[in-house]
Amino acid sequence: MDKRFYSKLIFKEYLTDNIMRIGFEAPDEFTFKAGQFFNILFDPSDVNYNRSYSILNPPSKAGIIESCIKLIEKGYGSDRLRSMKEGDMMMLEAPHGVFVIDEKTANNDHVFICTGTGVTPFYSILLEHLHRKPDKRFTLIYGAATLKELVFNETFSDLERKHDNFEYIPTLTRQSDGSWKGRTGRVQAHLPSSIEGKTFYICGLKDMIKDVMDALLDRNVDMENIHIERYT
Ligand SMILES: Cc1cc2nc3c(=O)[nH]c(=O)nc-3n(C[C@H](O)[C@H](O)[C@H](O)COP(=O)(O)OP(=O)(O)OC[C@H]3O[C@@H](n4cnc5c(N)ncnc54)[C@H](O)[C@@H]3O)c2cc1C
Description:
globular; about 230 residues; 6-stranded parallel beta sheet; alpha/beta
């Protein structure tokens, strides 16, 4: 199948003032792996206007390409997404990327670390793999500023209740009104104490990736056990 195709925006929903969930129609023959991303070619004649977005839905939810996107003040793609309407047609390019579950590793523990909308590929991966791989362990360490911005918190808490092989570790940095009784501080403060048998996956902005990488390398995690998806 051609990687480029025109697709209709089926829905657009604000999860917070500046986090949007969107869904495009996927062609019948479209397939992808959990963790991959797609490009929106806002101006197909100029590559400078391409923007990449991780796919939110798991492959088992067919017929749709969803994402969860933080809208930046005066960001080009962000402004275009704000003004897009359901029914609009856009050129997409997909699937792309290698940020998928490492099937070659002998490690049985997969540790996902993210902040903000860096959670998007992990949502897809967890919904796809948790119930199919009961012999593997999955951990999600997910940081946000406030509870409102911890999008999909309920879904992950629910998954943790249903799956013995999943541990959910949310942490907030700026919920100062006393309503949050959970973990606080940055994601790297909540890394597992032992690195034995673990493969780490980090997704988010470059500063956070650097901080987590530094913390993992300090603990002598081998580079081959670290996978990264960098948003900027
Ligand atoms: C493989 C890949 C997958 C991605 N998946 C997602 C995703 O699922 N969800 C998502 O929200 N983003 C994702 N991104 C980031 C996305 O592609 C854009 O870079 C981001 O949405 C900003 O685009 P823009 O056109 O609105 O801003 P631009 O006009 O490109 O940039 C405006 C400025 O904002 C800065 N900036 C960019 N992102 C942020 C941010 N989050 N916070 C603060 N400043 C920022 C840039 O450095 C730049 O200085 C992904 C990026 C890559 C490479």
